[in-house]
Amino acid sequence: MGKPDGASKQFIDALEFRGIKRRDFLKFCGATAALLGLSELHAPKIAAALEKASKRQPVVWINFASDTGCTEALIKATYPGPAELILDILSLDYNETIMAAAGKQAEDILAKSKRAGGYILIVEGGIPTKKGHGMIGNREMLDVFKDMAGSAVAVLAVGSCATTGGVPAANPNPSQIIGVSEGLKRVNIDKPLVNLDMCPMNPEYLGGVVVNFLLLGKLPDLDQHGRPKMFYGQTIHDNCERRAHFDAGRFVEKFGSQEEAMNYCLYKMGCKGPMTYSSCPKIQYNNRTSWCIKAGGPCIGCAEPGWTDKFAGFYEKLPGVKIPGLGGVEAGADTIGAAAAVATAAGIAAHAAMTKSTGRTKDKDGGKK
Amino acid sequence: MTETLTKEWNLAYIMEHWIRVLSIAVLVFTGFYIHWPFMAGGPDSFLMAWMRFFHFIAAYALMLGLVVRVYMAVKSTFDADWKDFVSIDNFKNLPDITKYYLFLSDSHKQYRKYTPLQAFAYLAVGALIIVMALTGGAIYHGRLFGFIPSPGSFQWVNSLLGGEPNTRLVHLAITWFFLIFVLIHVYMSFMMSWVNKDRTLTAIFTGYKLKKH
User: Fold this and answer.
1) What residues of B are in contact with residue A321 (Cβ under 8 Å)?
2) CATH class for domain A234-314?
3) Which of A27, A71, B32, B157 allows an S-S link to B138, with CB 3.0 to 4.6 Å?
4) Residue B83: in which H helix or E strand, if any?
5) Per-residue pLDDT tens for A9-35?
6) In whole angstroms, what separates CA B129 from the centre of its chain?
């Protein structure tokens, strides 16, 4: 990689000051190359891109209606990892959870960032649209969002709350919470948007998107829901470590059973893996320690837009069906199907009985053939 | 009034019918297994993999069977019957046949091949086979017929229905429709042979039916 120039030297010094060895930094670059589907040969390029990012891309991270789980996931990520990437390589100008500033000071930073422009806006949490249900510095969250999205270069919606509303937007959604894509439409702003669905978002996905941006100067290819194809291209089911049990027909029937102890497939426990697109089985969480299915829990579909409502209940295979007119009685599709089949059988029996009793089966030509 | 044996179905129609019976039977059985695996596989089994294999094979048979049936409806030299399905008279005569089946009248008009109810039911089956193919494509991972990338080419189905859980629900609900259709269809053919004594039931095996002149 040659001798580091001035900017790189400064960067390496900064990393060393934080106790991160150059070797660890290069390991992280190699891991990121693998994450992006590049060969190990690209690791030096990634290192160079990160080092040359001496301009330090400004980032504003705002929290709306959420449990701050995405921030938590980020700051507890691998070391060095996406957290260092965000904190050191980017200039994180505003993040309520981890910044020291508060009150007027914090508001001033936000106003200054807005004036300067050119920042990436990272949104965590859904946007309440009901008046008075979510305020920052005495301003409606939707107004703050409109303000900040206006002068951003790109918007990243991290976590399910930010993409389509997630848990806070679950039925009956008292605060009328919307996701960022809906929010942008609401305030008539057109900005490049990347959705990182998942609850919480995987910090390595965010790292991948940021490196992609620094390396190529553009956002990654997106699927029809605005999610990066490189992370949301295949279903969890396709790459699941328990897929062999599925194909063999070996399923967990209930929790606490022998089958569960043998790590059988969780399909019958309501696993949404077959309809959830994410790289969880490959990238996993917390420095590739574990993920939901490895830990014995069925996938709840958090990487899909419309979660949670569309994927409720967590331990049921398909959503319940609301029967109109019966006041929200929910029945499984199979219960309805079976009821319809029984009704049909009863109808057939009644019809047969009527056919007999009305004498339709008798010969109409007086017994002549 | 005399009755003679007339050829109602030729071999092509009979074969198409039984291929469809077989594929629907396989599809419903394997489909319910895939929906809710009711048998456990052993240590060396590939139960789910086999169920899915036969599900897809039968799905191809059903889809291609429909293509052949549509072709025969238009081009069959024996009996191209497409007009029976699209005739406006089917709507006009619907009350006539419905009243008969509800015991509100004692007789119904003579129809060429299908009563209006039959025409509508068979049209619905054809349409729902197409819906099943589309929703099936949207939840299938591979290449349909070897060259249509799935679910990529069918994402619009998911968007239309409001997400993949709904697509799966529709796919399941139509399975129940097919099951109920078969119940009624088999009952009707038994009952019609019983009431009219015209060998309706055996006609789908032999091809011949008694017709009054």
Assistant:
1) 169
2) few secondary structures
3) B157
4) helix B82-86
5) 667 777 777 677 777 777 777 777 777
6) 7
